Every structure is written in C-alpha cells, then in structure tokens.
C-alpha cells in the first residue's frame, strides 16, 4: 500500500507529518522536505499526482497524474497552476473524499462546494487557472517559509503561542505593513 510505504519513508527520514497521515499529506511532506528545497533557480514541478490535486484535470496521457505545475524560486512556491477539472461527477467524488479527510482531521482538505458542483453541471468549458498573488511575492521578498506568515488579515495568520508577549507588542506586530 502506497500510504504505508510513504509512512515508512517519513519515519526512516525523520520527516514530521502530524495526523492524519494520509497518502496525500505524507507525499506532500516528503516533496517539501526533499524536492522543493532543491529548487534554488526558477524550477517548474509538473504533472502532480491526482491525490494531491483535487481541483485539477487528470492528465490526458499520463495515468495517475494531473495537468498541474508549480513554479519555485529560492525554495519557495511562487505560482501554482492547473487545468481546471470540469467533470461534475468526478469533482463531486473528489470533494467527498476531501470532506472525509477534513472530518478525519486534515485541516488542509476541502469541504464539498455545492455551488461549484452545480455550476459544473451546467457546463464549464476547458479552463485553466494560476495563482501568483501579492502574498506569494511578499513571501518570496521577505524570505518567509509559509504563506500564512505574510497574509494581511490577522484572522488568517497563525496564532502566536508565546505566553510572554505584551499586548502592545502583539498589536504592533500585526499592524506592520498594513498602513495605506
């Protein structure tokens, strides 16, 4: 079983992966630990596994893969792009699998988007999308390792677990870079 093999590799290589240790999460952690960190020069990682790309169209000629790429520069993801999956039945099935993973504790998994599934039933022509927002550019420029570190809205930032932080320090740290 693929999940067991990936789990064994993570244990052997001391790669942390908090529960749930799904195939997708284990593979993502391994890619982050051993592949993404080698992408110093602009590098495209192409044709991601289907299990890691629930919104991407399945590859036309490579079974088990999707029509997706990510651009990395200096070990950081700058762009994520893929051909949109426009098969409503397949998309619903993938959303259902994601919802099960979410219920099992996978905070990165998605809920079922009923409005999106309904829209797909009306028909979506061949479409592609890519994400390279200002947040990714800011992440690159500030040498941040996680996109949550540069998000503008405090509700979306990771909680500060420091117990000895004065309230004024917290207010100042969340206000940095937010003036207009």
From TrEMBL:
For this UniProt record, give its keywords in alphabetical order, as a comma-separated list.
Aminoacyl-tRNA synthetase, ATP-binding, Ligase, Nucleotide-binding
Q: Name one GO molecular function term.
A: ATP:ADP adenylyltransferase activity
**Record-linked SUPFAM superfamilies:** Class II aaRS and biotin synthetases
Where in this protein does the record put region Disordered? 161-180
Q: Which domain of life is it from?
A: Eukaryota
User: Is Calcium tagged as a keyword?
Assistant: no
Composition-biased stretches (Polar residues): 170-180
One BP annotation, GO: lysyl-tRNA aminoacylation
Q: Which residues form the Aminoacyl-transfer RNA synthetases class-II family profile domain?
A: 21-158
One Pfam family per UniProt: tRNA-synt_2
Entry GO CC: aminoacyl-tRNA synthetase multienzyme complex; cytosol; extracellular space; mitochondrion; nucleus
> Matching InterPro entries, A to Z?
Aa-tRNA-synt_II, aa-tRNA-synth_II, aa-tRNA-synth_II/BPL/LPL
Name this protein carries in UniProt: Lysyl-tRNA synthetase-like protein
Q: Which organism is it from?
A: Callithrix jacchus (White-tufted-ear marmoset)
Q: What is the lineage of its organism?
A: Eukaryota, Metazoa, Chordata, Craniata, Vertebrata
